Structures are given as C-alpha cells and as structure tokens.
Amino acid sequence: MTEPAPYRSGFVSFVGRPNTGKSTLTNALVGEKIAITSNRPQTTRHTIRGIVHRSDGQIIIVDTPGLHRPRTLLGERLNALVEDTYSDVDVIGMCFPAGEKIGPGDKWILGRVRELAPKTPMVGIVTKIDAAPQQAVAEQLLAVSELLGPAAEVVPVSATSGQQVDIVGDVLVSQLPEGPQFYPDDAITDEPDETRIAELIREAALEGVRDELPHSIAVVIDEILPREGRDDLLDVHASLIVERESQKAIVIGKKGSRMRDVGSRARQGIAELLGKKIFLDLHVKVLKDWQRDPRYLGRLGF
Ligand SMILES: Nc1nc2c(ncn2[C@@H]2O[C@H](COP(=O)(O)OP(=O)(O)OP(=O)(O)O)[C@@H](O)[C@H]2O)c(=O)[nH]1
User: Fold this and answer.
1) How far is the CA of 133 from the centre of ligand 1 (A)?
2) Record-annotated residues binding GTP (predicted)?
3) CATH topology of domain 8-175
4) Mean pLDDT over residues 240-246, rounded?
C-alpha cells in the first residue's frame, strides 16, 4: 500500500517584471478576484494574500509589488515591503511571459531575489502561453530552466484561459513544507474588506488612463454605512486622491463622464464582493505631491 501524500502548507510569492501576469495568476489559482490587475505596469500596491485550498495542502499567496528601482519615497517604501515579503516565504515563483525574451530586467530581479532569499526554492513560471506560438513557449521553457538552474521546476501556464493552472498549483504544493492547514476552508484572503474595496475603486480608476497616473492615485475609504431600514444596501463613501489638478481633470473626464464609468465599474465589483447593493459616493481630492510627503504616506496607509 502506498502512503497517503502528506499535507503541505506555506507561503508563496510571485515575482517578475511588471506586467508579467502575477496578479492574474493569483486570481486564477484562488478562483476569486482579489488582486488588482491592469494592463499598466506596477499597479500592485498592497501585500494581498490569496489562499488556495486543496485536499493535499494550502497555498497562501503573498502578492507583492514588482521590484523596481525607487524614484520616490513611495518607491522606497514599496521596495522595503517587497524585501520583507521575500525573506519569509517558502517558495518563490518567478514569472516570465512566453512571448518576451529574458532580459537584463529579469536578471536584475533574479539577482535581488537570490540575495534576499538565497535558500528559498524557486519555480519558473512561463506565463501567457495562449498568446505565443508553441515554438516560442518551448524555447522560453528551456531559457528559464537554464537561467534558474537544475534545482528549479519550470511550468507553462495561461491564467486567462485556465490552461495548466492546476499544474502550477501541483508544483507549488510539492515544494511547500509539510504543515497544518493555517486558514479555515472558507478563507480566501485576510485582507480586510475595506482594503479590497479601495483596490477595486483604484483598479476602476486606472482603467484606460495615461501612463503617468498609476502611481499618482490612492484611494481612501471614508465611511461604510448600512442604509437605515435596509439590510440589503450599503453606503460607501470614498475619496480618490491625486497629486495635481490636471490629474483630477483626467480622472473626472468631460462633464464627469469618466467618473461615472469608474463609479459604476467599482460599484459592481464591490456589490459582488459583499453580496449587497451598493450606493457609492466618490470624490476626487488633490493632495499635492502626496507620494513625496511622509505625512500623507502615513495617512494613506503606506
Ligand atoms: N493573453 C494573456 N494575457 C494575460 C495572461 N495573464 C495576464 N495577462 C495580461 O497581462 C497584463 C498584466 O497582468 P497582471 O496580472 O496585472 O500582471 P502583474 O505581473 O501582476 O503586473 P504588475 O502588478 O504591474 O506587477 C494584463 O493585461 C493581463 O490581462 C495570460 O495568461 N494570457
């Protein structure tokens, strides 16, 4: 008779250049939308945990901001957060899109990771395989394997089509230490609702805006109140913080048209998250140069 496989549990972090599909993969593995995704680089701000429940183990995903060279005080604080995260995870999954050649950016990140977490097992993940020809996928698998060395397993995946997502889960679990179930079956993330709501609003506000905006938008939830006499309705009051009047104009759009779209998209996401009807009251505020001012950063939770 064969022994039953041991139960394994632990923390996994995905690293890689911006836009390599880390958040999308997290969502696909967890099966519910929790991490912010967008087609703009560097939009992941908070360390969000997604939890994958399996019969043979539990994978707790710590979704980190991409490593990048700091340009502002915010950038420095994000990097400090990243370093803390990497030094205490059990497995690091490094993501490489199938259709993009490995470059100096990847090597720089790998160097940093090896420096911060020299003993942590690494898994190479070749992402977006639906968007590249088979030949390119095969070549990328080989290149990643050569880059990471013989100890690292390498898996191809498409988070958007779902192809191979289970296999990524299998490989990650196999690298985790034996351990207990850390979280109950129904836990998906330990982020408070408020943080998730703020991320949903931020994600909606970033959709389709110009390149310089991502790092300039923050969201503060001012208040969440049940509507009097209505169990099924919540009033959410939130502020979108930008750095300059010109950015405020971009966010609001012509006669408020963009703002209405942002509001309605965010409202739908929040309603799905909380399972209630939502009245969303959104205001845009200008806090000049908030990214460079330690007082503002503290107030905005960085
Ligand atoms: N075709 C395809 N596109 C994908 C796949 N996974 C992610 N994408 C797209 O790639 C873009 C970036 O995905 P994200 O998951 O936000 O990437 P990220 O690495 O978390 O990005 P940062 O937060 O900037 O570090 C988005 O437009 C995704 O829709 C995939 O499997 N196939």
Assistant:
1) 18
2) 16-23, 63-67, 127-130
3) Rossmann fold (3.40.50)
4) 86
